[in-house]
Amino acid sequence: MAVKSYGQYCALARALDVVGDRWSLLIVRELLDGPARYRRLLDGLPGIATNLLADRLRQLSDAGVIEHGGHAEYRLTPWGQELREPLYALARWAVPVVMRRPLGTDTFRSHWLAHPLAVIYAGCDPARRPMTVEIHVDGDIMTLQSANGYVELRSGKATKPEVVLAGPPDAILGLLAGQLDASTAKAAGLDITGRVHHLAELRPTTLLRAATSDMSTNEANGTSDVGRCTS
Amino acid sequence: MAVKSYGQYCALARALDVVGDRWSLLIVRELLDGPARYRRLLDGLPGIATNLLADRLRQLSDAGVIEHGGHAEYRLTPWGQELREPLYALARWAVPVVMRRPLGTDTFRSHWLAHPLAVIYAGCDPARRPMTVEIHVDGDIMTLQSANGYVELRSGKATKPEVVLAGPPDAILGLLAGQLDASTAKAAGLDITGRVHHLAELRPTTLLRAATSDMSTNEANGTSDVGRCTS
DNA sequence: CTGCATCCGGGCCGATACTG
DNA sequence: CAGTATCGGCCCGGATGCAG
């Protein structure tokens, strides 16, 4: 179990008893992309100590969040996979601190792009422009493909990309999310080839406004202390 | 900031840099009920050390999640209030470990009931039966009121309750969530007065099935490692 | 080489005492 | 009431060792 159980009869506290420890949710993030071996988890979790990874894997396994399949592969249980929603909700909440603060000295792994892009291009939009975008980032090459209203990211080169993006992840993400225009992205170190303005037609019409909301405005919050009905 | 920043350019990691520390999300839980003074936070967070509460309040304040208003009152910023969704998502995910494991030696505070009840009775259901339920728990008395399709919980006695429930929180919650029938709840120490079967008409027709899902079933998860479009 | 276990220093956590 | 100060213990983090 966790560092120590909170010992509170509360759903949130019990959730944190299971996945509230340091690194635990990031391990789940890695496993959301599918089963992974130990070494791959280490690579996807820069900064973690090997013993900590082993400890967390044991904890999560005992709690029923992951399971230790054959070939030393770890995978999420069905219950563990249901963490995708709370995890994406937390990530969406953190959009301001991602967009407002540049990459800095933070590490990055190319496969992390899949999650924010899944949020940005969520769902099916029949009006979405079909196109192919090749992305060079972190010494890796990935392909963003729009077809039949859906957008998917896969690893590897594209055959005939309409746009090629190469540069730091924050510039790529800022451009794809619509937070940066092409010239600003270029100033941030992004190399753009092709019809960049077509990228705007990948995003659905109504776009995440949270990215532009101010984090530090002052305003009173609700005063009722019980029974707020959340629709 | 946190114990130490993960140093990863990833929305989830940056979210955890802000609210990933021990107790942080539970402090946010307390403040979701409205502004609170220091002492009230201590009462609502059984087990926390005073210095840790002070540290976390400072961190959250620096990060822009909460603000220190007049009269030593702490309140969520607008950005902090947006944590309600990720937090409820985590709590919903933990329903199995709440329903399957009894209260045990865990502590409980009556105002915590507001959150699970808000989830159980979320939204407006015009067909919902109007009624009043008085709840005695943790040496406290609260009133669950159904009117105009909405269900609200407030502290204090009811004037003419159709049902009065008195007992341990797990029995109360199990009964209200429909996980326990009346006789089982009584066996768990619950005192029931009035037309208990009317309680079933408080819940919407489609009910949280997650509560009954098995936590430890074995099944392969998805294999695609990138670009899963979450509708 | 992968998949851990062991060891150890530093820092956070947790309990208590203390101050304005 | 609202915190600050202090101190043990344990977890975290990094390095290293070792078995398959």
How does this structure look, described?
2 copies of one chain form a homodimer. By secondary structure, chain A is α+β, with helices and mostly antiparallel strands. The first copy, chain A, has 2 domains: 11-82, Orthogonal Bundle (Arc Repressor Mutant, subunit A); 110-212, SCP2 sterol-binding domain (Nonspecific Lipid-transfer Protein, Chain A, 2-Layer Sandwich). In chain A, 34% of the residues lie in helices and 15% in strands. Chain A has 10 helices and 7 strands. Chain A has helices at 11-19, 24-31, 38-44, 50-63, 78-81, 84-93, 95-99, 114-120, 169-177, 182-187; strands spanning 66-68, 74-76, 131-137, 140-147, 150-155, 163-166, 191-194. Chain A is elongated. At the A-B interface, helix 1, helix 2, helix 5, helix 6 and helix 7 of A face helix 1, helix 2, helix 5, helix 6 and helix 7 of B. Chain B binds a DNA duplex (20 and 20 nucleotides) through helix 3 and helix 4.
Q: What is the helical fraction of chain A, as a range of percent?
A: 25-40%
Overall shape of chain A: it is elongated
Give the strand order, joined by hyphens, for the main sheet of chain A: 5-4-3-6-7
Instruction: Report the CATH architecture of the largest domain in chain A.
Output: 2-Layer Sandwich
- The pLDDT mean of chain A sits at 84
Characterize the main sheet of chain A: 5 strands, mixed
Name of the level-1 CATH class of the largest domain in chain A: Alpha Beta
Order of helices and strands of chain A: HHHHEEHHHHEEEEHHE
Quaternary: homodimer
User: Could you tell me the number of beta strands of chain A?
Assistant: 7
- Uncertain runs of chain A are 207-231
